[in-house]
Amino acid sequence: MAEKEIAKQVIDALPDSVTMDEIIHALYVRTKFGRGEQEIRDGKGIPHDEAKRRLSKWVK
Question: Does this model's pTM top 0.70?
Answer without folding.
Answer: yes
